[in-house]
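Obj: model holo form, ligand = carboxymethyl coenzyme *A.
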Amino acid sequence: MSNSAEIRINGNSYELPVVVGSEDEVAIDIGSFRTQSGVITLDPGFKNTGSTQSAITFLDGEKGILRYRGYSIEELAENSTFLEVAYLLIYGELPDKETFDQFKKEVSLHTLVNEDIKKILEGFPSAAHPMGVLSSLVTSLTAFYPESLDPNRSKDRVNLSIIRLLAKLPTFAAWSYKNEVGHPVMYPRNDLDYTSNFLYMMFGLPSEKYEVDPVVAKALDQLLILHADHEQNCSTATVRVVGSSQASLFASISAGVNALWGPLHGGANQAVIEMLARIQQDGGDTAKWMAKAKDKDDPFRLMGFGHRVYKNFDPRAKIIKKAADDVLDKLGVNDPILDIAKGLEEVALKDDYFVERKLYPNVDFYSGIIYRALGIPVDMFTVMFALGRLPGWIAQWKEMRENGEPIGRPRQVYTGSKLRQYVPMNKR
Ligand code: CMC
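Output (holo C-alpha cells):
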C-alpha cells in the first residue's frame, strides 16, 4: 500500500499522506490540501469523510461486522452485561472482577439526583416528548455541578462527571416517563443492577410492590448492549463536535440526545412501530405499502430499512430478530405487528428495489417490537436508545478530548448571491 496519494487539479499535482487503520481501512489525509491548493473537498452528509481516528468501535458495513474495542457484538450480547460493556467502551478494556465491582459501586452511589431537578421536571407539561425532557435534564446537570463546566479540570473530576452521568441517566429516563403519565417519581434502588433499577423506577409505584421480571431485565440489557456504540453516526459526531469546542460533558451529551431524536436516526424505532400499526389498521396490505416506499413521489419510506454504512446486513438486526422471537415467546405475548414486520421483511428482501439499493432491516426494525412486549410505550423507545448509546457517546467524547482534537469546523462551497448593493426598504 502506497503511503501517499496524488491529487491533480488545474494542471498541478499535490501529494497527500495516506492513513491505514488497524483493520486496513485506507484514508487520504486531506488536512493540508486546502493550504497547498486552495481547494476544499465537498461531501454533504459526510458520506465518505472520516472525521477522526478512533480506537473504540470497528464496523465493516459490507461484511456486517460490529466490534467494540475488538470484541464482536455477538459475543458481547450473548455473554456480557450492559454495565460491563459501558466500562469496556469508556476505559478500553474488559474489567476484572475487583475493578468491575468498584465501578458498579461508584455508579450506584450516584443514581440519586438533586431534589430540585424534580421542580424542573414538574415544569414540563405531560405532553412533552420524553426525549426533550431527557436532554433538558442532562443539560440541567451543568447547573448542579458547575465544576463540571470545564473539561480541562483534573482527570478525576472529569471521571466523576462520567460516573454521574452514567448513574443518573436511567433516573432521568424513568422520570421523563413518570412526568408523561402523571405518576409520582420513584427513587433509585441501588441493590438492583443497572437495567433492573431503571425498570423499577419506570414501572414501580409507591403504592405497589414491584418485582422486576428477570426476562424483561435481560432482554432490555441486551438491547442496550446492541445500541452502546456505533462509531461516527449522527449523534456521536454531534457529541464530538460539540465537545470539540470544549463544552462540558453534560452539554455535549445533551446535544447527542437531541441529534438522536430524529426519525432518520434513533427516532426510527418509534417510527417503525407507528408505521407497522398504520399498516395493520389499513388492513395489513404489505404490497400496497411496499409500492408506496418505492414511489419517488411518495414521501413514505420503509422505516427500519436501510443504513448509511451497512450494505449487506446489520449484525444488530440479526441478534434482535432472534431476541424478539425469544422474548415474545417467554413473555407469552402474541403481537400481530411482529407478523406484519416479518411479512414486510420477507417481501423486501426479494424485491429488486431493495436488493439493488442494498436496503436491509436495521437495528430499529425489530427493537420496537421487543420494547412493546416489555411494556415500554412508543415515545419512550428513543429514550431507550439514548440510555444504550450513552457509554458510546461518553467514550467518544473522552477519546476526542484525550486526542486533543481541534474544534470541528467544516467548510462549505458558497452558492449564494455575489456582492450586491443594499437597497433601502422604501425603494424596494
Ligand atoms: N425506504 C425506501 N427507500 C429507501 C429507504 C427506505 N427505508 N432507505 C433508503 N432508500 C432509498 C433512497 O430513496 C435512495 O434511493 P435512490 O438511490 O433511488 O434515490 C437509496 O435508497 C439510498 O438512500 P439514501 O437516503 O441516499 O441513503 P442514506 O445512506 O443517506 O440514508 C437512512 C440511510 C438510514 C437514513 C435511510 O436508509 C432511511 O431513511 N431509512 C429509514 C430510517 C431508518 O430506519 N433509520 C434508522 C437507521 S438505523 C439506527 C441508527 O443507527 O440511527
